[in-house]
Predict the structure of GPI ethanolamine phosphate transferase 1.
Amino acid sequence: MMDSRSSSYQFKAIEANFRQLKEQIIFLRNAKSNRLWFHQFDKFGDKAMESLQNTLISLGRDRRFSAATSLFADNAYLMKEAIVFYHRYDRQMLGAAVSCSFIAWIALVISFLNSSSQRISYTLLVPHRVFVTPFLCSIAFSIYCSLSFSQTVYIILPIYLISILENHSGLMKYVRERSVTFFAQPDWLNKLVSKELFAKPFLTCIGFIITVGIFVLTFVDRAFLAAVFVLLMFLPQFYSDAIVSYWSKTWMLTCLILCIFPFLPAVGVSTQLPLCILSPLITAAICHRLSRRPCLARLQELLKIMVYVHSTVAVFLAVVNYGFDKPPSIARWVSWVSIPLSLVAPSLLSGPYILDRLVAYSLCFYVPYTLLSISYESMFVIVFLFLLAMFVRFEFGHLSDVELFQLKIDSTKVATGGYVEVRRTVVCVSFVLCTLFGTGNFASINSFNPSTLNLFISVFSPFIMAILLILKLLIPILLVSSAFASIIRFDPESIQRLCCFSLIFTDFMSMCFFHQLKDDGSWLDIGMSISQFIVSMCISLALLVLLSISSHLMAFDLLRKAATPRLSQEIESVNRSLLSDDEAA
């Protein structure tokens, strides 16, 4: 009796569940069924649903509740798949619209980069009259498909962006004029398949696709970062200076060494304190060796100070980690003080020269980074900084060592072409990815261990810990930004152009990650797909902010600012004495 009653309750429950699923399927299907190209879910259509309903009713009437329950359990997953199918019915169409928006936006950025005028007028945002018909057609299509407001925006946005592109560049007029001129030539067919018109753009597109593909795969698996280093190995081939040929083998060897790090376990899996202690000793030895070179006499004082500082950091790490079970309070005070000192000390210890500031900021920022390290990441930064230094030398290959050493921060910017800007952009994005994924997966905070902060904080404080982790991630990127800001001579226009070129690459990456977004599976998979998309979208914006910060940091001179009021006071006192002498006369 009890079994019969429980079976009856189970049947009523599955019947109610079936009706709920059926109502959802009918509601979602009716929203799309009025379209000409509509097709039902193949595995579970209307006939299958009606047949299942009739069978369940028949089994319930015959009081065969267990058979009805098993029948519903066997078909419930099909009903859920039908709901997902109708829910995602417009995914491909909207995804294509978003891809068109990305491509139109990238084309608009390229148009602004190639434009000599930087002024933006109101008429630029007014849609071109040629696009009135596509606008009306897209709106009518959205109404016909019963799309929501946000989906309608996705459909209209690429048309609007193309309209702005036409207003800015006059693309249709340009294509028409070039086509008439080209086809008017008698040998236009031979030129169509020539190297200049076909082969070179084709190879450029292939190279661009391969580069973006490697960048995207780096987000998926950090082992693909080795492919980025392999890509960077060919960088000396794009320079014609003699100094680049001299350093090319060293550059390739450094890239090969860096290829090892992506295959190591992510930082946080294990603790390797000897490497953390060894890394500042290595930098101290390098500073000691460089301080004895006569050509670096101007940096001799800075390098000697850094020898003592980095040696002290190594001893400090050894004593705190091996001499105490828990870092004392004085150790935390010292660790916290190292952060503001690394910002202020370079302007005090170095002169207003590009090379001096780069060396000073690299060595000073390395101190808090070492204190935040628990594994091989500090060793990675040493090798990476050496690679970054060689790249800076490559970019100043037209200068001799003496001229580079005497190059001041306020020196005049040298004009560059689009080829040089593209080359710098590829290297810049590559370096940013190297700093993000060289020691762990930036897109997942799970790869970082809070134990890296034991020298800074003793209690669990998520907000402070997050700030310190972000600081640890941003220090290498800030050094990369400082190097590139020095290369483009701290020019705001050049910074904007570099970020716009970076935006082209990162937007293509974001378009790839957009189509990889997940709304099913584990929470980790969903979160990883979202974080990859957000990080790729924010790279160019972060570069713009960090390049601006780096420019101000590199140009900041505390001694000069302190001397300016003193000098003005002396001038004022001299003027007063002269005035008193005139009055006395």
Summary: The two ends are 127 Å apart (CA to CA). The first helix runs from residue 2 to 32. The CA atoms of residues 332 and 457 lie 7 Å apart.
